[in-house]
Here is the input.
Amino acid sequence: MRIERRYTKEGQSPYAEIAFRLTTSEIRNPDGSVVFHADDVEVPEQWSQVASDVLAQKYFRKAGVPARRNKVEEETVPSWLWRSVADEAALKELPEAERFTGEVSCKQVFDRLAGTWTYWGWKGGYFTTEADAQAFFDEHRYMLAMQMVAPNSPQWFNTGLHWAYGIDGPSQGHFYVDYKTGQLVQSATAYEHPQPHACFIQSIADDLVNEGGIMDLWVREARLFKYGSGTGSNFSKLRGEGERLSGGGKSSGLMSFLKIGDRAAGAIKSGGTTRRAAKMVILDVDHPDIEQFIDWKVLEEQKVANLVTGSKINQRHLRSILKACVNCEGSGDDCFDPEKNPVLRREIKAARKNQVPDNYIRRIIQFAKQGYTDLNFPTYDTDWDSEAYLTVSGQNSNNTVRITDEFLKAVEADRDWDLFWRTKNGKIARTVKAHDLWEKIGYAAWASADPGLQFHTTINDWHTCAASGPIIASNPCSEYMFLDDTACNLASLNLLAFHTPALAAVANGETLKAELYDVEGYEHAVRLWTVVLEISVLMAQFPSKEIAQRSFDFRTLGLGYANVGGLLMSSGIPYDSEAGRALCGALTAIMTGVAYATSAEMAAELGAFPLFTENRDVMLRVMRNHRRAAYGDRTGYEAMTTPPVPLDHKACPDRKLSEHAKRAWDRAVELGEAHGYRNAQATVVAPTGTIGLVMDCDTTGIEPDFALVKFKKLAGGGYFKIINRAVPEALRVLGYKESEIAEIIAYAVGHGSMGQAPAINHGTLKAKGFTDEAIEKVEKALPTAFDIKFVFNKWTLGADFLRDALGVEPADLAAPSFDLLAHLGFSKREIEAANIHVCGAMTVEGAPHLKPEHYAVFDCANPCGRTGKRFLSVESHIRMLAAAQPFISGAISKTINMPNEATVEDCKAAYILSWKLGLKANALYRDGSKLSQPLQSQLIADEDEDEDIQDSNVLSAFLDKPAAARASGLAEKIVEKVVERIVIMRERERMPDRRKGYTQKAVVGGHKVYLRTGEYDDGRIGEIFIDMHKEGAALRSLLNNFAIAVSLGLQYGVPLDEYVDAFTFTRFEPSGPVQGNDSIKYATSILDYVFRELAVSYLSRFDLAHVDPSGEGFDALGKGVEEGKPAPDARYVSKGLTRSRTDRLKVMQGGADHGGADAASPSPAGGGSAAEGGRGGAVGKVTALSSSAPRGEIAGAVALKTEPEQKLSPAQALEQVNRVDARSHAKQAAAEKRAEARAKGYEGEACGECGNFTLVRNGTCLKCDTCGGTTGCS
Here is the structure.
C-alpha cells in the first residue's frame, strides 16, 4: 500500500516541530499518600497534567528496559526497523543499578508502538516501498504525540516490548496463526507476539467440566481478567432449572452457575487493579429461567437494602434491650424478666414490632444476665465495595436480555410468549404473557439499572457474516458484537483534533458557518489506523486456540472515535439538535466508509479474510445498506426488518462532510465488489475511558459533556478550576464579544476574589474583625476553591487568629462541621450570593449576556452546578445513537442517563424507541437506581434556596395569625407528621416532686435555645421545657405550650420514638448550624434540634447525631475507665446528661477515708458526697472510680462482667483517643469529599485504584479523571 505523508516531512523527525517539556508526575490518595511518583517525565508541551500522569503511571514500562541495546539484523527488514536486544557486554560496564531502567519519555512509548506496527506491517507485506513504511512510522508517531488517535490500553501495555527492548519471558499459554502458513501455533514466548486485544466474546457449552463447558469458562475468563481484558458470553445454551440431566436427575438451573461465575470473577479482580463489571452475561428472552435472570439484580439490590436497614434496626433494638437489663434496679433476676421489668417488656415489644427474631432477643437477655454491658453488633452501609455488596451476587457483570422483533411484536399485541427447554428442541417449558415479561424488564431496569437490552433481529440484519452463524453475544460494554470466540482490538480518533474553528458571520440574523472539519485529515487518519488495527491482528497472540483461529478467519477491527460532545459544543451546535445528529452521522459514515474502503485496498494486495467467500453475498448486501443510509434513503433497504435512521444531509452544518460521506461509501462498495474485504468488521464506538484521558478528550465516545467547569490538575499537586474549553469556543461561534464571553465565564467559574463580592467582601470582613493579613490569606486561597467555606477555616486563617481575633471557641474549631461564615452572622443567602460571585455558579444558566435560545448548546448529561436545572433528555441520547448506528459495523457503548424521577413506563418507552430507531443495544441508568450511588438530586435539594424562602414565608405567615388559628394550624401539622398511631388507654403517670434531668443550651441558626428535661426515677423522660432567648412573646409562648403538650403525652405513655419520628427533619426558620451541643451540629428547625437531642440522649439514636457521643469527648464522664468496670445506679444520675452512658459511673459506699466494713456503709463523709449539703445526706457518692465491692453489697447494682482493671498509660490513652478521632475524621472527610464530588459532576464514589472521588460515567462503566482507572475495555 502507498502511504501519504500529511503531517510529517521525509528526512525530518516527526517530533521536530513539536515542543516537549519535562514534568513531575504524581498521583496521590485522598489521604495524601503517594500512589505513583516520577520525576523528569518528557511529554509534549500541550499535554495536560492528567494525560501526562496517565501515560507515565499506566503506559510507561517501569522496569526491564536495558540501558544499552544492540540491533538484531534481519535480511528482509530495513536496518532502521531491526528490533533491539540488550547489549550484554555494554551493560556489564555499567553499575548494576543502572543496567536496567524504565521508560521516562513519551517518545520511547510512541516509538515502540509505531515501530512494532511498522515492523510487522513490513514483514506482512503491507507497504509498497520502504518510503511508505517510513512514512507510516513517522505519521503514527506524530498523531500519537498530537493526541489525534490512541489505541486501546493493551496495545500500550504490551506492544513493542520485545521489538524495542528485547523484553521476553516464558509463554503464558497463548496461540496465534502464522501469517505465512496459516497454521495455528502455540506461542513460544510472552512478548514476541504481543496481546493487543481488549474485547472478547467467548462461547459456553451445556457441559459441566469438559473443555468449552461451564467450569472451563471460568478459567478462560480468569485468563482475560488477569490481564485487564473484558469478555462476554451468551448463556442461553445452559439448561433451565428442573430440566432433565442425562443421568436422570434435574438441573439446578442457570442462576446457580451464574452466581458461581460472578463470585469467581469478583475474587480474581479483587486483589488486582482490574475492575468490576468487566464481564457481560447475556440470556435469550425465550430461556426458561429468563424471569429469575431479569429479577436477579433487583433482588440483590433489595438484599443490600435489607442488610443495611436490618442491621441498623437490629443493633438499635438489641442495644435498647441490653440497656433495659443493665440499667435496671431489682433483686435477683428480676431485671431480666419482662414480666417484672416494664422497660424490658416495652423494648421487647418494640423489637418484635420491627421483626427482630425472638432468639436474638433471648440471646441478648442471656448475654446481659452473664454480666455483659455492651454489644458489638456490626452494621452495613451502601458503599459499592462494602461488605453488604460483597455479600450478594451479580455485582461483577453487566446483564443483558437478548430480545427478538417477534417478542416485541408479541408485547405490542399482548400475546403469549413461549419459553423453551434447552435440550429438547422445540419443546415448550412453559408459556407466559409477553406483556408481563416486558413489564418485568422495565421494572428491573428502573430499579437496578440491569438488565440492558440487545435487539437480536436488528443486530443480525447488519451481520456481515451470517453464513457463518448468528451473532448472539457482545463484549462487556456492548460495542463489539460478533461471532463467539472472537476478539477485537480498538483505537479511537479524537474528533476535536480535526476540528476547524468555524468562521462565524452574521447575516439576516443567522450565524453562517464555514467548514467545520478537516475532512481530508480525518480520512487520512482513518485509513492509516485501519491498517494499524489490521497489522495488530497479524502480529497478535490470543488466550485460546478457538479465538486465535477465528480472529484469523474474520480479522475484526474496532476503529472508533471520542469527543462528539466536545466537538458539537465547540462548534456551537446543541447535542440535542438535528444539526448535531447530522454532523455525528456524517463523521461516522465517513469513518466506516473509509475503513471498509481501506480494508478492500488491503484485500486487493493481501487477499480477503479467509471466510469472505462464503459470506460474500450477505456482506455486500450489508455494505449496500450502509451506502443507502449514507445517501439519506428512507426506503429500499435489502432484507432489513427495521429501517435505520438515514443521514440527514439538509441538517448537516458542513456540506463537505455530506459529500465525503457519500463518496466514501461509493468507494467502499465499489472496491469490495472488486476485491472483497480484508476484515469482516471495521468500526465500533467504545467508551474510550483511559485513552480518552491520554488524548485530553472533553467527552468519551459518543457521550455529551458532564460538566461546564472542569478541574485542571496542577503539576505540583492540587487542582485549578477552569471553564470547559468548548464553552468560549462555542460563544465565539455564536457571535458573542470577548468582553461578554469573559463575563459569562466569570459567572460560571467565579471571579476568584471577594473584592467586589456581594454581602461578604473586604469591607464586611473587616467589620467582623478581619485584618489585612487575614484577608490576603483568604484571597490567595480563593482561586482554587470549590466553595468559599473551604477557605474560611482554621487551616487557611490559623487557629490563633480565629480564637483571639474572632472569638471562636476551641470546641467549635474542633467540630468537623463548623461553619465560620455562619458563626460570624452571615445568612445562608448571603453566603450563597458570595459563593456564586467568588467560586462561580458552575453553569451558564442565568449568566449575563447569554441568550436563552443558546442555552441548549451548553446542555450536559447532568444538571450543572448548584443552580443548574437543564440537562439532556433521554430521547436526545437515543436519537444521537440512532444517527450514528447505521454507519457502525459493531455497536455503540453508551449509557442513557435518566433522572431519578423517571418511571418504569419511561424505561419501557426508552427501550421501544431504541428498537424502532434501529439501535442494536440500550443500557439505561436511572439516577439512584443503585444504592451505592448518591442521588444527584439530594445535594441540589439540600441547597434549594427557593424551598428555604418558602419555608421562611410560611413561618412568618403562621406567626402573624391569631393565637387560636396558630394552635389549630400547628395541631394539623402534628397530625400530618404522625407516622403511626398507637391507642392505649392508660392513666397518667405523675412525675416525682423532686426529679432529675438536665439543661442543654445551644444556638440554632443564631438563636439561643434552652432545653430542660425532667425524668422519672428509672431514667425515663417525662417532661420537657423549651425556651428561647430574646424572642417575641408569641413564639416563646407557643413553644412553651407545645412543650407542655409533649410532656402530657409522655406522661400518658406516648413513646418518645413517636415524637422523634414525627418532628425530626421538619424544616422552618430558624435553622442552620448548631453551636454548644456536642452531638447535634445542624438542625433544619427548632423542633428538629429538640427531638434530635432527646433521641440521642434518651433513645441512643446516635444515627440522628452528627457526632457520636459514645466517643471520648471533653465532657465525657468516666474518662479512662474501660469496659469491665461496675455499672452505675441510674437513680442518682441523669440518664440524659450522660447520653445514656450511665455504665461509666459507679455508686461507691462511703468516702475515700473509710475502709473495710465501714466502706460498705452509706455515708456522706470523707471525700465529699455528691449529695453533700443537700437533702438525703446518706445517699452514696457518685464517682467515676471503680469499686471492688461484690454485687450483693452494693444497693441497686446491675449485671456486669467484672474484669481486672487495666489502666492505660498516658501515651496509650492519647493513642486511643487519636484512633477514635481519626476514625471519626475519616468518615466526616469521606462524606464531605463525596458531596463535593457530586457537586462537581462526578459520581460521588472513590476510585478503586487511587481512592480519589473523581469517577465519571463512561459508557456503561466508570473512569477516574485522576489516575485513568476505568471499568471499561479501553
Summary: The first helix runs from residue 49 to 59. The longest strand covers residues 34-44.
